[in-house]
Structures are given as C-alpha cells and as structure tokens.
Amino acid sequence: MARIPLDQPRTLLTRLAAWYSRRSYGKVLDPLMALAHNRRVLITDSRFEMSLARWNKLDPGLKDLAVMASAAAIGCSWCMDFGYWESRRRGASHEKLHDVPRWRDSDVYTPLERDVLEYSEAMTATPPVVEDDLVERLRRQLGEAALVELTAMVAVENLRSRINSALGLASQGFKDSCDIPARPGS
User: Structural domains in the chain?
Assistant: First the structure.
C-alpha cells in the first residue's frame, strides 16, 4: 500500500499530468501522482524522463535488461511491473524479462547480456561493487558512449526504484495486460 496519498487536488498541473499519463500508458501512473505532492519535483522528473527517452547510444534491449536488473535488485515491484510492460511493447522477449531476477541460472542470455545484467547488479549494490575487468569488457563490446549511457540508465533506475519502494508503490497491473491470455478450454 502506498505510503503517500495518490489522489491529488485537481490542479491544472495534475490534470495535465493525468491526461498525458492516460494517453501514453492507458492509466495514471502512481509515481506521477506521488511526485505531484511536490510540484517542482514532478516537473523536474517529467522533464528528465522526456530527455532520457531521447538517449540512443545503447541498444534498447540491453537498456531494458539493465533497468529491469536494477529494479529487481532493489525489489521495486512497481518498476518490475511497468518495466516488463514497457519492454514488451518494444518487442523484448518474455523469457528474457521473466528470467531477469534469476539471470545467473537462465540460459536465455547472450554473453553481452550477462555482462550488462552483472554490471547493473554491481552498480545497484550499496556500495557499488563494479570490477574493472567487467567495465573493460563492456567498453570493448559497447563502445564508450553506450557504456556511459548504460551506467547512467542504471543510476536513473536506482533513483526511480528507490523512490517508488520508499513510497510504498506497488504493481499497477501493467504486466497482466502484456501477454495474450489463454483461451477458455486450453
């Protein structure tokens, strides 16, 4: 249960944020309504997220895995739910997304994807436990611009997941709408 009320006074800003959220995601995002308790935080976060959407040096599939690994390490159910839905919309494999919390025991990942998942977890640890040889492997495989973007995306997901977890935000059921439900009788 959320630790902060998610119903907001109907100001122009909250109405605009809710409209945009419904238009883009089909429902009003709980983190949006939580951040709306502080107008400047909401505006800053919204501008930041719009800017992040334009980053394009890192392969989107690798970015999705990195974000999901960070959210899983922190234990943010809202971020895992929304991240799964968003990644599936972009065509990510159900198996890869499903196995993120137990990626070490899964055989669905390439060596590069395993390095990205390991890096994401290492960065998310407190304090970070990133090793030089892992960074060097990623730098050789991705290039410096993509490595910097990967690092920034993991840091951003740490911010998101820690805010959402601390405020008690839980799954909004996005994942439930991703996959085709089984037909009756099958």
Answer: 12-54 (no CATH), 60-166 (1.20.1290.10)
